[in-house]
Target: C-type lectin domain-containing protein
Amino acid sequence: IAVAEFFFFLTTGYCSSALCSRDLILVHDQPKTWSEGQTYCKENYADLVTISNAQDMNKVIDIMNEDVDNFWIGLYEDVLTWSWSLSDVGYYGDGEAEFRNWDAGEPNSQSGIQHCAGMQHTGKWKDLDCGLLNFFLCLDGNLVEKYYSYWAEAQHYCRQSHKDLVSVRNQAENQEVQSMVPAGKLAWIGLFGDSWKWSDGRNSLIRYWGQGQLDNLGEGPNSHSEHANLTQIVKYFCPTSIISKLLPEASQQYHLITGSLTWHEARSFCRVKYTDLAAVNNMADKNRLVNMLGGRVAHTWIGLHKGAADRWMWSDGSGRVHFTRWKEGEPNNVAGDEWCGEMSEAETWNDMSCGDKKSFVCYERELMTHRKVIKEM
Model:
């Protein structure tokens, strides 16, 4: 993008408190690169603007010049840094915020999308795709609760209902938390990686990425950004109706949405409103889903998609597809881009282009809750 297309905001005062009032100035007659804008602001005022909350964002919007589309702010990408979701410095003793117990070879940021940390039942940590479904551990005084969700949703739940996702400050606490992780499972902890920094050095985690921007964090730790984007998708597409049915003898509920979304849009909708697109792991699931549809729609997206090594997977992270109901001759990838799966009124599956728009089925998983008191956390 040409330099001339970018102008910038600067702030005339630095405040350590979010309640402190700051004056903002829009420099719209001196187009500069980001670095030039930063230098100008630091030499003449304080710095490029940091957006710490919704009030800051609204203040920026209020003084934007409608004749210019793009403005620099103080956000820039640096090396990936691992931080705890619970940022209260008073919670950590000397060096405790830097305690890490990574497994050998971790973190490896595989494919550039592993920005959230999970604990294995061995007590060792791994960096993971934040969009996977895992147990998670909330911190509330000396009480940890164990649930099952995505990292960003886990963070939101813990902050709303307790204190935050659990921080692990030392080896003793690591062993206590380890005792709660089932064999062969992973549990989210509050550690996340973020390569984006504010120019003035403040630790604001607020992000307002535009739709389609920074896709590798679409399911990542910046829940403010994630939910803002996905909420826009939900409001924009406005599904025409939602039909829900509790599954007998199951801990999940199916929801038929008779709107018209692409597979990825449908997955985003399901992850915001429910748990994920529907997974069909056995004949009982298939029968419940058919009963749910009741012949209402001919073709619906389910959570079936082609993953690594051309293997069909479920979008909820439950793994490779073993139970199948493919239509005869399918999957055939006839269009060359048929990487997503639909279910037809004939109760069979077909591979389709992910950009096709269809109705879809979400499912909602009940939280699996267990309580255990741990010592002096």
Residues 78-87+96-196 form one domain. The chain has a mean pLDDT of 71.
